[in-house]
Design a protein that fits this description.
The complex is a heterodimer of chains A (323) and B (257).
Chain A: E1 5-8, E2 11-12, E3 15-16, H1 18-34, E4 38-44, H2 51-56, E5 61-66, H3 75-89, E6 93-97, H4 100-113, E7 117-121, E8 123-127, E9 130-137, E10 142-148, E11 153-157, E12 172-175, E13 186-192, E14 205-209, H5 220-229, E15 232-235, H6 237-241, E16 262-266, H7 272-278, E17 283-288, E18 301-304, H8 307-322
Helix pairs in contact in A: 3-4, 5-8
Chain B: E1 2-7, E2 9-11, E3 33-35, H1 37-53, E4 56-62, H2 68-77, E5 81-85, H3 95-107, E6 113-117, H4 128-136, E7 140-144, E8 146-150, E9 153-160, E10 163-170, E11 173-177, H5 189-195, E12 200-203, H6 205-208, E13 216-222, E14 231-232, H7 239-252
Parallel strand pairs in B: 1-4, 1-6, 4-5, 5-12, 6-11, 7-11
Antiparallel strand pairs in B: 2-3, 8-9, 9-10
Classes of the chains: A alpha/beta (323), B alpha/beta (257).
């Protein structure tokens, strides 16, 4: 019978990504409720040394495929490796990250294992021995509780939502052969964006601008505030469609659905599709001169005033606080 | 070139979503249905490819009778023919069951390249394209923002956190489209007229040899958690005063900065 709670750890450029610790901590919690072990799959080249770090967050066994063909990440190689080791060991639950890489990898693994998965979950629990995965649907306009009738019960977890808890376990390394065939896809180039840029999907704080920014140059004041706060700069669909900001910054139903600790909406009126994409933020601030803007109905703190005066003043206040 | 584009009919992005009283699903009354915006990027790329290299575009959709309108929209944009898979067994189908039905339909027609949206904006599962590629045993590139085809060589760009990755693979393959790939065209009036006469095959699950059975289900739908009413800051009427009050609250009350 299928047993154990497993994760697929994500690493890039020689380091585990933070979401891997979120996955490990969450898996530990579920495994303790079931009285089972936590396993982690770790694929890449020269990655064995990272296994011990997973142990710190509650992983009992780390299944390592160390193979130059697994670096850099490609869908077919990683999906083949993960599916192979999962089939051999039959875990009951398999958790992945709903990161850019995880969103690519997870459904391929679903296809290979012929099972079901709940995507981009914001909560997972055990009920009657089974996984119940809670996930926003319609970009957060409603939530669904998903159950998977086949094994492994798969879920991908939204980054930055699940708490990291240290819990030392063995992190014992179990090597496995990825059993790779001929590569069907190949990474030929990685074009890095400006260094230090934080992706909206991974940010703890997002400073976001909409139509009220009046043009691309208006975002300078948001960049400055974001720089101080270690935040990402987001944008509404109107701002992206106007060509003011890149598509990768768009928050909303046709962009990224985000759950930061703090979302500062500047000059965003709050179209339904935008509200859907950011309503699960812990705290929402709205700065808009139109007191009737729908965004104020969702905001914890609302400032009805000219954002071009409020944002620079807020930047000065934050400077004082951080000094 | 034999090009396939998969489409799904979904509620418009401006639609309010109301959960049924018993949590079994959403209220469909009053919803305006549209083509999934990410599928539109796929259809547009399919049409551009056909215009450049010749061939034809087949639209494949899984959905109830109302979905025919979305298939016709894609035909009005310029696709040649359609397959609509309409079966009660596939109502509320999960990603696996949907992909299985699509794969069965696509196996029956020539296919050099298959386009899907990176996700449908209703269930947000973001799985169908990848499962489809696995079931067809062909490579895939997901979340594509740029695509070049040269003979059977495929070069596709996909954004990841803080970077873009350029990937090479070969036909046949599945491409899932995301925003940035192109600007979808509108259907022209003559296009809409012509679309009415274009052939659409309606298939049942049994015609395709699939059961329609899902691997997962949404056991319960719920509205999003209510947010407590917020504060409008007005301790001081100047922008500077409001900014100072906001900074203080974020630091001391919310503890987020």
């Amino acid at each position: 019978m299928a047993k154990g709670v497993w994760i697929v750890a994500e690493q890039r450029d020689g380091a585990l990504r933070k979401v891997s610790f979120e996955l490990a901590s969450t898996a530990r919690k579920l495994a303790d409720q079931l009285g089972e072990e936590v396993g982690a799959v770790l694929c890449g080249s020269g990655v064995e040394a990272m296994a011990a770090e997973l142990g710190k967050y509650g992983v009992d066994k780390v299944y390592v495929a160390d193979n130059p063909a697994l670096e850099p990440y490609t869908t077919d190689a990683h999906a083949a490796a993960v599916a192979k080791v999962v089939k051999e060991n039959d875990p009951a639950i398999l958790l992945l990250a709903a990161s850019a890489q995880g969103k690519d990898l997870a459904p391929s693994v679903v296809g290979k294992l012929a099972t079901g998965m709940a995507t981009d979950c914001t909560d997972v629990k055990i009920d009657g021995g089974k996984l119940v995965a809670v996930r926003p649907m319609y970009a957060g306009k409603c939530f669904g509780e998903v159950v998977v009738d086949t094994f492994p019960q798969m879920a991908s977890l939204r980054p930055n939502v699940f708490t990291i808890v240290e819990c030392a376990k063995a992190g014992e390394v179990v090597k496995f052969d990825a059993g790779l065939g001929e590569a069907k896809t190949k990474v030929v180039e990685v074009q890095k964006e400006a260094s230090g840029k934080i992706d909206v999907a991974e940010a703890n704080i997002i400073v976001s601008g909409g139509r009220g920014m009046k043009g691309p140059e208006g975002y300078g004041i948001l960049e400055e505030l974001a720089g101080l706060l270690g935040a990402a700069v987001g944008a509404s669909r109107a701002a992206v469609d106007a060509g003011w900001r890149p598509q990768s910054d768009q928050v909303g139903q046709t962009g990224k659905v985000v759950s930061p600790n703090l979302y500062i909406a500047c000059g965003i009126s709050g179209a339904i599709q935008h509200l859907a994409g950011m309503s699960s933020s812990k705290y929402i601030v709205a700065i808009n001169k139109d007191a009737e803007a729908p965004i104020f109905a969702r905001a914890d703190y609302g400032v009805v005033d000219d954002l071009f005066k409020v944002v620079p003043a807020l930047t000065q206040e934050v400077k004082k606080l951080l000094a | 070139m034999n090009i396939v584009a998969c489409v799904k009919q979904v509620p418009d992005t401006e639609a309010q979503i109301k959960v049924k009283g018993d949590g079994s699903g959403i209220e469909e009354g009053g919803i305006k249905w549209v083509m999934n915006p990410y599928d539109e990027f796929g259809v547009e790329e399919a049409l551009k490819l056909k215009e450049k290299l010749g061939g034809d575009v087949t639209i494949v959709s899984v959905g109830p009778a109302r979905s025919m309108e979305t298939v016709r929209t894609a035909l009005a944009m310029g696709a040649e023919k359609g397959i609509q898979i309409d079966d009660p067994a596939l109502n509320n189908a999960d990603a696996y069951a949907t992909a299985e039905a699509l794969a069965a339909a696509i196996k029956g027609i020539p296919h050099d390249i298959i386009f899907c949206g990176q996700r449908a904006i209703d269930d947000d599962s973001a799985q169908v394209g990848s499962i489809l590629a696995e079931l067809l045993g062909i490579p895939q590139v997901t979340f594509v923002t740029k695509l070049e085809i040269n003979g059977t060589a495929v070069k596709a760009t996909r954004p990841i956190e803080g970077a873009s990755v350029v990937i090479e693979t070969s036909l046949p393959c599945v491409i899932t489209a995301t925003k940035g790939l192109n600007e979808p065209r509108y259907a022209s009036l003559p296009g809409i007229m012509k679309a009415k006469k274009k052939p659409v095959d309606i298939k049942k699950a049994a015609d395709l040899g699939v059961s329609g059975a899902s691997k997962s289900k949404v056991a319960k739908f719920a509205p999003p958690p209510a947010r407590p009413p917020g504060k409008i800051l007005c301790a001081d009427d100047t922008p500077e005063g409001k900014a100072a009050e906001l900074a203080k609250l974020l630091r001391e009350e919310a503890k987020v900065i």
